[in-house]
Each structure stands twice: as C-alpha cells, then as structure tokens.
Amino acid sequence: MQNLLLQTTIEGDPDDWNIARFSHLRVFLEGLRDDEGQPAFRVTARDRDPLGKGDTVLSRLHESDFDQLWLFAVDVGNGLTDADCEGISQFRRRGGSMLVTRDHMDLGSSICTLAGVGAAHHFHTRNPDPDPSRCCIDDRVTTDISWPNYHSGANGDFQHVLPVGDVHPVLRDPYSEEGVIRYLPAHPHEGAVGAAPGDETSRVIVQGRSQVTGREFNVAVAFEQSGQGGRAIAQSTFHHFADYNWDIAAGCPSFVSEAPGDGMIRFPEALRSTHQYVQNVAFWLGGIDERPV
User: Does the N-terminal or the C-terminal CB of the chain have fewer CB atoms within 10 Å?
Assistant: First the structure.
C-alpha cells in the first residue's frame, strides 16, 4: 500500500476550493485495489496550515513516509512558502511522485519554484507561456479573468481530449472503443502547461480544444522518473478533479458565477473515463505502467 497525500495550498476557507471539495476523488482513490484485492492507497487529505510560516507537512515532506503528493494549487499566488517549495522539491528528488495542478491566470502560481514540475506551469505574471501568441484571452465570457483561460466548456460538462504522440500509460483505457481516454471534465477557464524547458523527461501527453476559439491547448505534461526526481504530472486545472466538476450537485464556492452544465450527468461515459484517468495516474505515479484488466 502506498501513502498518498491530497493537499491544497489554502487554509481551509469553507467558501473556497478547500480539500473537502475533492471528497469524491478521495473516496475513489481509497476504493482502488491492488492485484491482490487489497487497498492500493492510504489517502490523507488536508488543507495547509495558516500562512506565515512553513506548512508542518509540506516543508518536511521529504522526511515523511508519503509516496505520492497530489497538490491542488488553489491559492492566489501565496499558498506555498520557500520552505514548503523546498520540502516538496526534496520530496521529488528523493524519488517521491506527484501530480501538481492549478487553474486560470495566476491562480496557484506559488508552485512556480517547485523543482522541475513548476517550470511546466505557465501563468499570467509568472513564467508566462513562451509562445507569445498564447498570451491572449480565450474565455471571453468571464471578463474579469485574463489569460491563460482556455474555455473547454461549462463546469458540470465534459470535454473531448486527444492524446499527443505515443499514447502515454495514463491515457490507456481498455473500456473505450479507441483504447484511450477520450473525456475529462470541462472548465470555463483552464490554465496553461507545457513541457519543462531543458527537461527531456517531460512531454505533453494530452490536449483539449477551446469551445470558444477552437484552439488546441495542453491538458497534461508527464515527467518520467530520472536522476532529477520521481514521476510527475502537471495538469492544466484542478477542476478535472473537483467534486463540482464530477457532480454539480456537490456545490461550489459562492464566487463561482458561470452557469453550470449537466453533461457529466447526461453522459455517464464521461465520468467513467475520468475515473479511469484518475486510476491510471495513481498507479503510474506509483510505478505501475499498466494494470491488467
């Protein structure tokens, strides 16, 4: 059994994207079984300690018995201290694996200095996309949010995603006709990710398409295990994993103004595909490329 940490970068405001809003993910991960039918993961879910000093877990993550970190950067740019970033970076250098995800514009930009994986995340004012043509507004509905803000659909709806290059293990789906993951939850303004410059272990593995402009955008970047550290995934938005995006009945913070959709409810295959992706990521980060059906 692996120890898996689900962690946000905020203190737990009940009217924000605190860790309780990822409860469906936690329950799903806790239900996964290994080849012997035993629980595959022991899941710990928490928000960060109060700001002002290093988080008691993240700043010493490299000294912990955690095998995986799933980090939901839901802060406005101040969610990780230097000590937190160093603890997480050392965790990966010693072989720990992690999924690091954020959202639009500068939301979650405190992850920029994480070793290797931070460089795969592009924000509005920190580490912007090296392609100037992408430094422009995509979502034209929510006008107070600037780029990056790729509009893949309404919260509660799903998007079609496309593998990039050779199909990566986290995108294999034995239950789909094509044999690959085809659907993930949609979100009105996803962030931007790209292969980390100078890191040959990283590559874009899946893309989505804007429902506003038709432009393709990167959804996930995978990092292979190397001398630089353990396996990792950089994901364009935490909304791919949030309760609200799996089931709008779970509710959302009061500041969410966009009208939701109901595609995930009407088309159960999209949620099944999402579950398959999450399972694939968890086992791949755990060192297993493919599990028998």
Answer: C
Residue 158 burial by CB count (10 A; 0-12/13-18/19+): exposed, middle or buried?
buried
Q: Which residues pair with 179 in a beta bridge?
A: none
Which residues touch 113 (CB under 8 Å, ≥6 apart)? 82, 85, 89
In angstroms, the Cα distances linking 289 to 130, 168, 170, 211, 229 are 31, 9, 8, 32, 17
Q: How far apart are CA 147 and CA 224, in angstroms?
A: 28
Q: Which of 36, 27, 21 is nearest to 275 (CA)?
A: 27
Minimal CA–CA distance to 276: which of 159, 173, 183, 184?
Answer: 173
Owner of token pair 């950067």: 73
The SS3 assignment for 40 reads: coil
**pLDDT tens digits for range 230-274:** 999 999 999 999 999 999 999 999 999 999 999 999 999 999 999
Q: Is the pLDDT of residue 106 over 60?
A: yes
Cβ proximity of 270 and 158 under 8 Å: yes
Provide the sign of the torsion angle of the four alpha carbons 131, 133, 136, 141, taken in this order: negative
The two tokens of residue 211 are: 């429902």
Task: Give the mean pLDDT of the chain.
Answer: 96
pLDDT attached to residue 115: 85
